[in-house]
Batch of 2 targets.
Target 1
Amino acid sequence: MNNQCGQKIPAGDNTVRLVAQDGEYSYPDGTIALSDINLQVRAGEFIGLLGPNGSGKTTLLKLLDGLLYMTSGEVLLDRMNIRKLAPRDIYRKVGLVFQNPDDQLFAATVFEDVAFGPQNLGFSRSDLAQRVACALKNVDMEGHEKKQIHKLSFGQKKRICIAGLLAMGHEILLLDEPTAGLDPQGESRMMELLYHLNRERGVTIIMATHSVDFVPLFLDRVLVMSRGRIVKQGTPEEVFTSPEEMAEIELRLPQVAELIYLLKHEDGLPFDKLPLTVGEARRGILELQASGNAAPQKQ
Ligand SMILES: Nc1ncnc2c1ncn2[C@@H]1O[C@H](COP(=O)(O)OP(=O)(O)O)[C@@H](O)[C@H]1O
Ligand SMILES: [Mg+2]
């Protein structure tokens, strides 16, 4: 298996890669960070973890990466209990990209940083250069091997963190708020990059995010967390229902959905479904106009 450059990780037959069973986690100071965590991640999925600050997203990602162990319950990676796997066996398959790239990057140059992981996994010198070049290509940083890390922009640093994991051959990427701190264009580019890795390279992705407006554009499935529990999960259509329900779980609808919801429920425009993206909303409005129903139905 190889997720470098042109090669694609075989999607498998919807194989379950990661499982959390009846998971609970308490920090040593007694904070109960997670309770009753049950989830399955299948090969090739692109999953979002949504939830307000403190709801347990980062803790869950660390548990799925084997950086922390459940206080009770288990995490299984390819049906093996993650406690029983050597770090090497975990890190060949799963990698976590921290929220702040400065917590992850440590070498002086891009090459040294991206090469560090595969070097430790014992790849030969000739393989290393190739792996680094391919990983950089995959994150749109081709040819930046000699660049000094401290001279990179924040968004470039985030992409180098991802390259470091891809160079090790990771098939499952866990990302903690990969779009946080990026400018609007950087946010879109990051989402497109992740989408590309998922769809074209076959990388399974689970990302914590507050970028609600991007969720329906890119993600297959959403897990909503609140106070350490997964309180809702499903496709974006299943999760994003009404502003009231979203407010209960301390989230909001994508902005365009909020607008159409108001037009339907406050102004009486007869939309039959709630569009979640600008494209869907545009089609819905044009359909209403074509059917002659674009005028409000009530005062
Ligand atoms: N190192 C720690 N020690 C004690 N409590 C922690 C620690 N890290 C996080 N927590 C607590 O665990 C809960 C979940 O935090 P976290 O997983 O960081 O949430 P999120 O990523 O959704 O913001 C919060 O109540 C937080 O205060
Ligand atoms: Mg967090």
Target 2
Amino acid sequence: MTAQAYFLYHSIGMYPGKARDIAARMADFAMVWGTPDDAQWADILPARAHFIDLWRCILNAAPGSVTTCESVTQGFHMLLQALPSAHLAGKTVLVGADCFPSNHFLLQSMAARHGFALKTVPLRQGAAHVEDEDFLDAWTPDVGLALLTWVSSTTSHRINLRAMVAHGRRMGSLIGVDITQAAGLIPFDVHAPEVDFTLSTSLKWMCGTPGAGILYVSPRLIPHCHPECAGWFSQDNPFNWDITRFAFAPDIRRFDSGTPGVVAALASVPALEWHAAQNHAALLAQNRHLTAQILDLADSLALPVLTPRAEDQRGGSVMLRLPDVTPAPQVVANLRAGGVITDARGQTLRLSPGILTTAEGVQLLGQKLPSALRV
Ligand SMILES: Cc1ncc(COP(=O)(O)O)c(C=O)c1O
């Protein structure tokens, strides 16, 4: 029953044949890499470019505006340290208290050296996500850069991106968006509304592997960025060996440095190809159908729902507040023993149905949850 009752798409996405596809792609890589000829680069560099192109389709991003990074945190660091100091020094960087904590850790660590003040929009008393209204109120003209979290990882609240970006443009700020929690499930376009940078990983709704993050930077911003970690791959011609003639590539490649770590991108290509071949409207409709059933189930058990009910205000998950008397790790373990795969953040039970999850899986959740709560 596990596949049908797999609810971890906010963490690791699964699709039919994923294990087989990764094994085949990695076996292929091993053969190329382990064969004593000179065919390696001609094989793996185009494969990395294919990974980037598949991501460009998801983002509707222009050629030369997307590159690989290890994680969202690392990609955000790549961008921040490359910005002209005028965007950060003496300015405010704005973020919500419900951002992915790793991004907040990074901003805290960079604030003093880069001379910016970090302003964190707080949660209201008892709330689990930052209200758009509060974020907008805090977004004043001194904000040099704002990081928007499109969908929260602990409530699945989705911000009104259009309204946020429109306001940010009036404030003259750089605007970045972390799309990790809904990329590949809910349509996203770097041009609508137009954002300055975008970050994601591949491992959630796209079902890829860890280490396969992406950084998009607007072609308008790229020429102004000077990455500190310059290297041979950040040049237009990586084979320029003249140490007196270094020049950044005109496009996103300037964010590359030394030999790119391609393995995670290669391992993720089959998943991205699978995703590209799907009917995306059908994927979303299936998620909407199953999340509606989970919301009904939560209501029938009188479990508080932390996720907004309106479809246009939520990502792909339903997050429930468990009673304090039932420790979440125990509830998760009980569900697992009953063939239902979930996780929790604190007392928040996270439920994200994707392509493998079925209505029978939600029914099983409904059967197991009442007893799982009796711990
Ligand atoms: C909103 C959001 N951002 C980022 C991440 C992951 O960040 P990183 O790739 O730096 O581990 C997650 C992971 O769950 C997330 O939910």
